[in-house]
Amino acid sequence: MKKIERSVWNPPEMVVPHGAFSHVVEVSGVHRWLFLTDKASVAAGGSLVGEGDAAAQSQWVLELIGIGLKSGGATWANVVQMSTHLVGRGSVAPFLETRDRFFGEVYPDGDYPANTLVVVDGLVREGMLVAVTAVAALP
């Protein structure tokens, strides 16, 4: 069975990561890429999950990414890059706490994917506080 090789590191010339992410992720042996579009806190029926609660929305979004990964034959170990959009600075701490707890389970060795986190004024739907995209590399 083919396997991707994944290496992560943080060059000493760069600031120590202030959270669960790596500055550099290198992958080889990639045969397929899986791109997960912005996952937001919306249930399959269209209802908003965790309205006004950034921690609840963060948990739901991370679970949705896991569902998307599984549907493509991937796991969190295949994720090499994420982009996170949070509404308002008040969403940052709840997101980071939820992500750190979640990542502690799916990345026990601390080999985190690269991540960009931006704070925005709003997302496409009122009440959405968290949206995350992910890119996964598969053998």
Protein architecture, described:
Helix 1 packs parallel to helix 2 (92-106). The protein is globular. The protein has one domain: 60s Ribosomal Protein L30, Chain: A. Helix content is 24%, strand content 32%. The protein has a 4-stranded mixed sheet with strand order 3-6-4-5. The model has no long low-confidence stretch (mean pLDDT 92). With 139 residues, the protein is α+β, with helices and mostly antiparallel strands. Strand 4, helix 2 (92-106) and strand 5 (114-120) form a beta-alpha-beta unit.
What is the CATH topology descriptor? Answer: 60s Ribosomal Protein L30, Chain: A
Strand neighbour order, sheet with most strands: 3-6-4-5
User: Quick check: average pLDDT?
Assistant: 92
Q: What proportion strand? A: 25-35%
Quickly list its features.
alpha+beta; 2 helices; globular; two-stranded antiparallel ribbon; 60s Ribosomal Protein L30, Chain: A; single chain; four-stranded mixed beta sheet; 139 residues; 6 strands
